[in-house]
């Protein structure tokens, strides 16, 4: 009650700040986004020590300008969790952490954590089956129209392949990705094939894609365009690499396509593995 505006603290990673924005939209709360950063990795590491002893210092990070009229501070991602607490205390606002804030004390007013992320059984923890996402129907319609300008509608159904890439703990195996694409091509019986990569996709994977008979190919390294909302709405079947739980959650919760998870990393992180296992059930 009495919550009208939220300050979203962003680390600049769409997979993180989009979940904070989704929470605000689901709550019906207006929001403003500010980006936070550290001057060095040492200072970032220092925030863990400060947090352990309950010390709050705004001098440890840089943040964009904002006013003082906020009742919530919301953030996702390890680079934001300390700033979340400091800014909430400064504003007299409630603090909300999205995803598990590992390495920091869980003394936020609320934590919204997917079940696969090993949430602690605390009274302020709210668990969700997948990552938070929000469907803005008007924005989706605009993205679909934008995509149709690039690739006009035909009379064939479409399969979409959404390729992520390397993460901090695992690397995409270009050989496994190529083998997965071979299987997808062998399964097709007339469907169009649409493929998009991301900013994390290895160059070797994009090189392989250029050689394949693909009806619509978007390479992020050549243009930072995002066709994923259109893929989710228009495809009958989606093949999504398992490296991003946020990307998988978006595909599962929006549209009506069947979703296949492609496990093409050299080593799958435990978190992603738990998420895929839960989806399979």
From TrEMBL:
<dbReference type="InterPro" id="IPR009367">
    <property type="entry name" value="Elm1-like"/>
</dbReference>
<dbReference type="Pfam" id="PF06258">
    <property type="entry name" value="Mito_fiss_Elm1"/>
</dbReference>
<protein>
    <recommendedName>
        <fullName>Nucleoside-diphosphate sugar epimerase</fullName>
    </recommendedName>
</protein>
């Amino acid at each position: 009650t009495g919550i009208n505006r939220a300050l979203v603290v962003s680390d600049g990673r769409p997979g993180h700040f989009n979940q904070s924005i989704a929470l605000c939209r689901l709550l019906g709360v207006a929001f403003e986004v500010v980006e936070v950063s550290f001057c060095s990795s040492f200072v970032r590491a220092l925030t863990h020590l400060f947090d352990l002893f309950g010390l709050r210092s705004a001098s440890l990070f840089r943040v964009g300008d904002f006013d003082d009229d906020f009742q919530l501070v919301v953030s996702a991602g390890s680079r934001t969790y300390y700033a979340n607490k400091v800014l909430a205390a400064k504003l007299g606002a409630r603090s909300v952490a999205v995803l598990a804030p590992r390495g920091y004390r869980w003394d936020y007013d609320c934590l919204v954590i997917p079940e696969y992320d090993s949430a602690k059984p605390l009274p302020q923890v709210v668990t969700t089956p997948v990552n938070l996402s929000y469907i803005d129907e008007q924005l989706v319609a605009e993205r679909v129209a934008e995509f149709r300008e690039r690739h006009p509608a035909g009379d064939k159904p479409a399969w979409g392949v959404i390729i992520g890439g390397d993460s901090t703990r695992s690397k995409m195996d270009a050989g496994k990705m190529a083998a997965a694409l071979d299987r997808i091509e062998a399964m097709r019986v007339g469907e169009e094939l649409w493929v998009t990569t991301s900013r994390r996709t290895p160059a070797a994977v994009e090189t392989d894609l250029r050689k394949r008979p693909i009806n619509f190919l978007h390479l992020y390294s050549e243009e930072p365009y995002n066709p994923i909302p259109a893929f989710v709405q228009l495809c009958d079947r989606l093949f999504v690499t398992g490296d991003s739980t946020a990307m998988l959650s978006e595909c599962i919760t929006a549209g009506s396509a069947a979703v296949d998870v492609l496990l093409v990393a050299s080593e799958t992180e435990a978190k992603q593995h738990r998420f895929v296992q839960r989806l399979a059930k």
